[in-house]
Design a protein that fits this description.
Layout lengths: L1 E2 L4 H5 L3 E5 L6 H14 L4 E5 L6 H5 L8 E3 L4 E5 L2 H23 L4 H8 L4 H16 L4 E5 L3 H36 L6 H20 L3 E7 L3 H16 L3 E10 L8 H20 L6 E5 L8 H11 L3
Helix pairs in contact: 2-11, 4-5, 4-6, 4-8, 6-7, 6-8, 7-8
């Protein structure tokens, strides 16, 4: 279903808009433009990037790395996740609880737990929890989420799902050996089984956030074979996780007017073939927006205002 722009989002009033897709297709541009649009509409808006190699600070020409800052010229808040800081936050929030659980099984020093907290994947796991905390805080009407390149976003969801399921196994294991562990657990400030249950509920709530009816993923792609193929695959994976695909943005489309040379005509013909493939793959009620290739570089709030008029035409 071809539409002129993303104006349909205004009527849907989403709580979270995720921009997903292959690296380099324009997710940050589309996410920043959409966040600016919501802010101009008077909504309390947060723009967040969970890309481990983010470009949001460069896009906004404001340093938003590591903590939420207000971009006054755009009337919105923005943050790029600093994964080193995320691990530190994880230690602050869960370090004591992890120590209680692990030390109820085995005698272990606290510095061993701190070492475990720096293991690969911990930052990814806490990234979703960070988004969830902002989601339930009530501080924002809408969160626009510039996700990691396709594989990274799927890894976050898969890790959270695995974490949730394994916590159930951990609780069952703990029940089986609890009698033998009671002696070791004497004097512990908290019941490890209760802590495991709280973690599982948190993981459940995070997954529920991504599946909520007011959370939607907008796929961003360019009309080239590799990007089209990955877009179809990632959209299918997201739908299997229960994430609603709310729209498709086909970026960097050469218009007929721009294809006035043999080179550009050839590229436009190639793009048309891939656009037809996307139209076939995303049939039904999924809105499809074609965003023309622009003659200017998108950087800074003023160029984002130009993009806003293109993505959200009156």
């Amino acid at each position: 279903m071809s539409v002129d722009g993303l104006n349909f989002l205004d009527a849907l009033e989403p709580r979270i808009v995720m921009f997903c897709g292959k690296g380099g297709v324009g997710k940050t541009t589309c996410a920043s433009t959409t966040a600016l649009h919501f802010a101009l509409k008077g909504k309390r808006t947060l723009l967040i990037s969970t890309d481990p190699s983010p470009s949001l600070s460069d896009m906004l020409e404001t340093d938003v790395m590591g903590c939420v800052r207000t971009v006054a010229s755009a009337c919105l808040d923005a943050v790029e996740l600093d994964y080193d800081r995320i691990v530190d936050l994880w230690k602050e929030k869960f370090g004591d609880e992890v120590y209680d659980v692990v030390s109820s099984f085995l005698p272990v020093e606290r510095d061993v737990i701190d070492y475990i907290a720096g293991a690969p994947g911990i930052g990814d796991e806490f990234a979703l929890s960070y988004v969830y905390d902002l989601y339930v805080s009530g501080a924002y009407d809408v969160i626009v989420w510039d996700t990691a390149p396709a594989g990274g976003t799927l890894s976050l969801l898969k890790l959270e799902d695995t974490f949730y399921r394994h916590l159930g196994e951990a609780a069952r294991l703990y029940v089986k050996v609890r009698a033998a562990l009671n002696a070791l657990a004497q004097g512990k400030p908290r019941d490890p089984l209760k802590i495991i249950g709280e973690w599982q509920r948190l993981a459940h709530d995070v997954l529920s956030m991504t599946k909520d009816a007011r959370t939607m993923a907008l796929m961003v792609t360019i009309p080239e074979a590799l990007s089209v193929s990955q877009t179809r695959r990632v959209a299918g994976e997201l739908e299997r996780f229960g994430v609603h695909i709310g729209g498709l943005v086909i970026n960097q489309v050469l218009t007929e007017e721009a294809s006035d040379s043999p080179f550009n005509r050839s590229r436009r013909e190639m793009q048309i073939r891939h656009i037809r493939d996307l139209e076939t793959a995303f049939t039904g009620e999924v809105p499809q927006v074609k965003l023309p290739l622009q003659s200017f570089e998108v950087r800074g709030v003023e160029t984002l205002r130009k993009m806003e008029r293109l993505l959200f035409p009156c």
